[in-house]
Amino acid sequence: METNMKHIHTSFQEAVKDINDHSTIMVGGFGLVGIPENLILALVESNVKHLTVISNNCGVDDWGLGLLLENKQIDKMIGSYVGENKEFERQVLAGELEVELTPQGTLAERIRAGGAGIPAFYTPAGVGTPIAEGKEVRTFDGRDYLLETGLTADVSLVRALKGDKHGNLIYNKTARNFNPMMAAAGAVTIAEVEELVEPGELDADQIHTPGIYVQGLIEGQQEKRIERRTVRTHA
Amino acid sequence: MAVEMDKAAVRELIARRAEKEIESGYYVNLGIGMPTMVANYIDNDKEVVLQSENGLLGIGRSPYEEEVDPDLINAGKETVTASIGAAYCDSAESFAMIRGEHLDLAILGGMEVAENGDLANWMIPGKMIKGMGGAMDIVHGSKKVVIIMDHVNKHGDPKILKACRLPLTGKGVVDRIITERAVMDVTEESLKLIEIAEGWTVDEIKASTEADLIVSDELMTIQSNT
Predict the structure, then answer these.
(1) In angstroms, what separates the C-alpha of B225 from chain A's closest C-alpha?
(2) A144 found inside a domain
(3) A32 min Cα distance to partner chain B (Å)
(4) Contact B177, A145 (CB under 8 A)
């Protein structure tokens, strides 16, 4: 019997099995916040190569997507800011890694558009800058806009706070970031959730990603490393 | 007579002056670096909502150690708190707010600004490109874009130019420039000098600015003391 219950993975290795050499993947997160930590670790272990990775950043040298870089699994990176990572710089300068820098809002919208069946859209971001090279410019109401294309992926790896077995997801605070759009833009989306619950346990009015976008889930313990711990001291 | 100031004093002077751009009721995006410092000087009487483009409308103060939440950061990836009445959103939504011109003000840093309002602040050819982050979207998204930066670079050369030499972040996007020496508005004709810091003469400002400056009839002294 067909069911709307999603595949609940029991190992992270099995959860990333749809990712092969030359796959295009999206990985949620902003900096190290909201990254699917264990799915990334499993991908490092799988040793698949020649990946195209779409993610806002590329981790740091010893964590997150930086681990994939270190293991030379990425051929091409599409992101908006990659300045936290020395190995990234080394591979780009050595010609080992191709990078496509995209303004952050354009990146978010390209992913949103991809998941929503919109092949391209116009945006003012980047008009008259180096990123406009080779792109169509069109004028609306006297203002110039660039044509940017939607993005999709073979597999999207996202992280949520809670997920139910129908694939409905709820994120936590700024760990939401790129995860909802990526969930929709992946042909296959795997969600690493901090807590997996039964259908009906989540308030349907509070769900951020409806389950239709999610193909598989797995529960994972997060380290949640902090890049810039900024605190105030008690007076 | 030119004024010698250390780096920290320059940053504080600029940040305090930039605070005066913020009006009560505004939604504001503060860029990474010196612009983030402006938040430290916002007048307690002003009710302001700070937006962080990763997906937070309502940045609060820095957390105490025991309040640190690794899932709660600003666009500079620093741990923050959320203000009372804050809202979280995804990054497509946060840039819809920006691109849709719902923000009243953005205060950003700059490497070069040209007299026509062009801004360069993201890459130096020959150096490793780190990426533009959200800057290219933000410069098109706010009702007013204010650039805060040092008046000249570390070699003493002008950063306010007739035309930018560095690759642009945005074309004709800047409304106002605030430096430790002057405040200038981008106008149809050229840059208009509207405020000048104590200890500087108009001639000295002109000499350290490549762009043509029109001097306002109502030229004032920069008020940055609180």
Answers:
(1) 24
(2) no
(3) 8
(4) no
